[in-house]
Amino acid sequence: MAIGLYGGSFNPPHAAHRMVAETALEKLGLDRLWALVTPGNPLKDNRALPPAANRMAAARALLDNPRIVVTDVEAGIGAARTFEVVRHLKSRAPDVRFVWVMGADNLASLHGWGRWRELAGLTPIAVVDRPGGTFAPLSSRAAAVLRRSRIDERDAAGLAHMEPPAWAFLHGRRLDLSSTALRGRGASL
């Protein structure tokens, strides 16, 4: 089984989150995608973060697809970093082929994530293009470090079965939405 892991605060969830999830399901040939609603982001101010139960309910309503599971596994295991979550899941399900899924905007800041190099060595990564997020992320520090591990998008259907480090940059439909911009316009849960 191949499962995409798509983490985020989903504050609030929006149509671009759905597009990233659907692009990953389609291009990677995944059996499932798990939307991991984080209890907080160590790189952001979490003081105004709505309760996880509210964000999970909103994400479930948005990502209404039988192949998508919305979960708070990160809170359940007490993990604070993506690497810890992926390591835990891989140890609990060694026969599952996981792929970390993220929007291209996150590739630009990946080098600031705790243990990001170890994450890249633990599971393949799929980066889904976002408006205004194509060229800067591909020129980022993490992209430069992982340059030799990038596979062609035409081979992305096999990414889950590749030994890490391996990553692909995926193109598809794009919406110019972000949770930050929506919150700036007063959107909330």
UniProtKB/TrEMBL annotation:
Which pathway does it serve? Answer: Cofactor biosynthesis; NAD(+) biosynthesis; deamido-NAD(+) from nicotinate D-ribonucleotide: step 1/1
Reaction it catalyzes: nicotinate beta-D-ribonucleotide + ATP + H(+) = deamido-NAD(+) + diphosphate
Specify whether Membrane is a keyword of the entry. no
Please tell me which top-level EC class this enzyme sits in: transferase
What Pfam families does this protein's entry cite? CTP_transf_like
Q: Which InterPro entries match?
A: Cyt_trans-like, NadD/NMNAT, Rossmann-like_a/b/a_fold
Its Enzyme Commission number(s) read 2.7.7.18
Q: Which UniProt keywords apply?
A: ATP-binding, NAD, Nucleotide-binding, Nucleotidyltransferase, Pyridine nucleotide biosynthesis, Transferase
Give start and end of each Cytidyltransferase-like domain: 5-184
Q: Does the keyword Glycoprotein apply?
A: no
Which molecular function term from Gene Ontology is one that the record holds? nicotinate-nucleotide adenylyltransferase activity
The Gene Ontology biological process annotation of the record reads:
NAD+ biosynthetic process
Per the record, the similarity remark reads: Belongs to the NadD family.
Q: Please describe what this protein does.
A: Catalyzes the reversible adenylation of nicotinate mononucleotide (NaMN) to nicotinic acid adenine dinucleotide (NaAD).
Tell me the HAMAP family matching this sequence.
NaMN_adenylyltr
Q: What is this protein called?
A: Probable nicotinate-nucleotide adenylyltransferase
Native organism is Chenggangzhangella methanolivorans
Q: Upper taxonomic classification of the species?
A: Bacteria, Pseudomonadati, Pseudomonadota, Alphaproteobacteria, Hyphomicrobiales
